[in-house]
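Quick one before lunch.
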Amino acid sequence: MKYFFNLLILFLPFCQLKAQSSSIDPSIKTSKALMDDFMDQRFGMFIHWGPVTLRGTEIGWSRGTSVPTEDYDNLYKEFNPVLFDANAWVKAAKEAGMKYLTITAKHHDGFCLWPTKVSNYNIMNSPYKKDIVGELARACKKYDIKFCIYFTVLDWHDPDYPIHISGSKADPNANMDKFVITMKSELQELVTNYHPYMLWFDGNWESPWKNEYAANIYTFLKKLDPNVIINNRLGANDNHPTLTHETIGDFATPEQRIGELNMKTPWETCMTICNQWAWKPNDTMKTLKQCIQTLVKTAGGNGNLLFNVGPMPDGRMEERQVKRLKEMGDWLKIYGESVYGTKGGPFKPNEAFAATRKGNKLYVHIFEKKSNTLTLPAIANVKVKQAYLLKGDKINYNQDTDGAVTLQLPGQLPDSNDSVIVLELTTNAETIPVVS
Ligand code: JFZ
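Model of the JFZ complex:
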């Protein structure tokens, strides 16, 4: 027993060392105030782009599958998006009512859209030879859109990273320590040259990646910019839809589905406007109803939406996508106060309705009219003072003793995608506990 105890004492400092190196100093973590500011934005644009658009297949994932590796890795020599106009892209985001924009500076294929000094596999060695990341950063500043950067951890192109094709065995000649140094140099360039508001990591699920590296990088980034916001795909194998106190990263990232109602930890759903992340010719596009309801159900769950567009190889975004985004923006021009700067809840969003709230207002978003009335789940100790359509007429309602509100819906809902009824309360709507 004594022997065991001595052994424990002997190894304790090592255990601590290990625990320290894979966790981060709580004092450098992104503050609640910064995260609240991020969550107030509610709506951002994701852009997946690179030489792979010349093939119209999925970025990263088609390398070595539908596009032979040799072919894929040489596409950059033909990548010349002469119609690229950073202002046009950022204007499309602005007109959609988006508040931030995230560009794939480097995806799993390893190609860098900025003139990095660290690797030759970058835009300056394509016929285009212009700094795409830099031009977007500048345009975002001009249009008051927050500029953010997507950066993959895994890099199937870099010989120092042990996995060269998804699913293949680790290369014994690779060198992770060297790879992490490269990664840090690239990130240093990105942070010091373009000052991103947020960094969106990805590609954290392969075995070479460890939490020790992730914690080291989080700390490194926070030294470069203490205010930079970092998603949860930096920590090794992090479960994307959730966030715990052990997560290395500031917000959760459910993908291609709307996150669960969560009043405690920040999250952002990423979803594509079509099916593919990168441009695909004639890809099926979501209807305006799907687009608006995705945004509203996300806000109703207390999350942000990072909505993805994949521009074409010539540098333009598809006209039909820009139009669809503008239609979302037109809806937001009328109903924006029920989305931006609100909290989600207290009801779980469903197919018929979702709710958002700010101050003493509870916004009820109605997606479809099933009958002439809509009865909301009971909210105890809350009194409704008046009800009206946002930018419209008064709504008759009845509130019973346990707090359930029944709304008399108008003959025809004013907006077939989402009509918003405002319930003005006598108290603060933001403090109502979640109704389950
Ligand atoms: C990742 C990327 O791989 C994808 O290309 C896109 O950038 C998206 C936003 O994030 O999505 C994933 C992540 C993991 C798997 C598939 C797609 N996976 O493990 O199969």
